[in-house]
Amino acid sequence: MKVKLNDQVVVIAGKEKGKKGKITKILSKQERIVVEKLNIRTKHIKKSQGKAGERVQFEAPMHVSNVMLVCPKCGKVARVGYSKLKTGKKQRICKKCKESI
User: Fold this and answer.
1) In this structure, are 78 and 65 located in the same domain?
2) DSSP state for residue 100 in the 8-state scheme
3) What CATH number is associated with residue 57?
4) pLDDT of residue 48
5) Statement to judge: residues 62 and 91 lie in one domain
6) How far is CA 8 from CA 50, 56, 68, 87, in A?
7) Do 48 and 92 lie in a common domain?
8) What's the pTM value of the predicted model, to 2 decimals?
9) Quick count: other Cβ atoms within 10 Å of Cβ 52?
10) DSSP alpha helices (H): ranges in 1-101?
11) Range of the domain at 90
12) Beta strand segments in the chain, E
């Protein structure tokens, strides 16, 4: 996955299209992410003995293909590329400004 935890992203598809948020959780096997304050769902919890029923709101995961990274350097929505350092490590770069992320 080209996005990582705490990256700033913009939703490019779905009902939350155009909204920005920070990634709070990554589910890599399902290729899904949880974005802060986006894709809010409501779960109804049935009442039980001695406890009232309630409605709990939570941030549901969305597919990683529905978001794009916001470059921290130039502030634009951009695709992510990779470049190799002299040490042999891979580094993420912004495809618009060519700066490292």
Assistant:
1) no
2) B
3) 2.30.30.30
4) 95
5) no
6) 42, 26, 9, 27
7) no
8) 0.89
9) 7
10) none
11) 73-101
12) 8-11, 20-27, 32-35, 40-45, 54-59, 62-63, 67-70, 77-78, 80-84, 90-94
Strands 77-78 and 67-70: antiparallel
| The predicted structure's pLDDT at residue 55 | 97
What's the structural domain count of the chain?
A: 2
- Stretches where the chain sits below pLDDT 70 are none
Residue length, the chain? 101
Q: Longest C-alpha distance within the chain, in Å?
A: 64
Q: Please report, as a single letter, which amino acid is at residue 42.
A: T
User: Are residue 64 and residue 30 in the same domain, yes or no?
Assistant: yes
d(Cα 75, Cα 68) in Å, to the nearest integer?
Answer: 12
Same domain, 77 and 63: no
For residue range 58-75, what is the model confidence (pLDDT) as tens digits?
A: 999 999 999 999 999 999
The predicted pLDDT at position 42 comes to 98
**How far apart are the C-alpha atoms of 61 and 30, rounded to whole Å?**
10
